[in-house]
Amino acid sequence: MAYIGKTPIVGNFVKLDAITTSATTTFNLLNGGVSYYPQSANNCIVSLNGVIQSPTSAYTISGSTIVFSDALTSSDTIDFILVLGDVLSIGTPSDGTITPSKLSTGVAGLVTWQSVQTSGFTAVAGRGYPCNTTSAAFTVTLPASANAGDTIRILDYAGTFATNNLTINPNSLKIQSQTSNVIVSKNNEALTLTYIDSTSGWLITSGANEGTSAISIPYSVEYLVVAGGGGGGNDVGGGGGAGGLLSNTFSAIPGTSYTITIGAGGAGSSSGAPSTGTAGSNSSISGTGLTTITANGGGGGGSYPAAAGVSGGSGGGGGGGGVSSPTASGGTGTSGQGNSGGNGISNSSAGAGGGGGGAGAAGTAASGTTTAGNGGNGSSAYSAWGSATSTGQNSGGTYYYAGGGAGCNDPGTAGTAGLGGGGYHTSGTSTYNGTANTGGGAGGGGIAPTNNGGTGGSGIIILRYSGSQKGTGGTVVSSGGYTYHTFTSTSSYTG
What we know:
The protein has 495 residues and is mainly β. A hairpin with a 2-residue loop joins strand 8 (59-62) and strand 9. It folds into three domains: 9-86, no CATH class; 111-217, Jelly Rolls (Sandwich); 218-495, no CATH class. The protein has a five-stranded mixed β-sheet with strand order 12-14-16-19-20, with no helix packed on it. It is elongated. The chain has helices at residues 100-105, 383-389; strands at residues 9-11, 14-15, 26-28, 30-31, 34-35, 44-48, 51-52, 59-62, 65-68, 78-83, 86-89, 112-113, 121-122, 127-131, 138-141, 151-156, 166-169, 182-184, 190-197, 201-207, 219-226, 245-252, 257-261, 283-287, 290-295, 393-395, 398-400, 460-466, 475-479, 482-487, 491-494.
């Protein structure tokens, strides 16, 4: 409320003692270890897991206790409970001291509204900013220093915050006790930020969307993205390359949906000379505010006589050479995603195919006169992920992803498949597939009637973050202090 004359003298702001959560709805309110009795729920600002709660609907006050509408768990965090102060006195202005200029510009408690902002800027305390993100998202940087009671107001001028989010940078201070940027992603939002202290920083003390969180605090998500493996080459064929493997982190925005695309394995070649297996399909994560993350499908294996392997996430192995054919080279892996396939060899008969590359090692070249190449092993760096989610190939308690397929020779003896779902020729069968949802490359074909190349294994995407579940989508498990979301088919993840 605005006042004419002197600003009201307000006191008795109280930040209550920290509360350790447990599986219950009711908690005692203490100030310095002594029971505290707020006037009502509306007299309190309560932040739970970084979100300001709605009084009376999310919680009520009963004497010296707070009662939440839903039971909390030990993993929940009550960031703070702030009890609003009371007006102690209002000074009375003397006659003749209120001038027209004071009425128009000096009314205590009002902010000075600025022109519409369409690009990033640094905010100043005591000002209000209409922000128009129609053309593009941008960032509001808060002041580098602030005093208790400073306020800044922000509103969605064009109703476009959901399409082009507004980011608020705390600029070395805090927002809702967090040092990270926050996102305003609701259309027609209008909010007031009030600075409290160095512990809590700026608090959202009012918002247009009653009962909802005015802001979204991004959280860090680790990802493992594996593409589909390449198909094997036919007729003394090279092994398919493993699907590309990528891992890093991104900032997930609560409430934002991200598209999860799982790449299929490539088909093996079955006829024609020379021909190659089909490359696997890409796997990816995409969404608003995120640069699309794409792992490339594995390359297909080469075939007799001397067709080269295909490049991809990991390269396919070269096919076996004919009587006068040159050596067939393995395909090249994508830097940072996989390794190259091995070369095939030629001799007086049909030679042997090279192994497909894996995420952890290159495929080996065929050797001697008819020794087929081995598929490169996949990556074991994410063994804990595989153990938690029961995915990947388990070898002696270590889990692998994206192994290369084995090459094959004449008369049909395969090399060793790479750990991580790589395929290999087995006598009496016509295909030598990579394992589904590992990104494993397929095995190369032998000689008729078992000369077809196998199909590569499909890809997989796993997301994980520290603590209890925040997002939805995929198969969810908790292990070792992390929450995992596993995707084996195209779907979506909501932060």
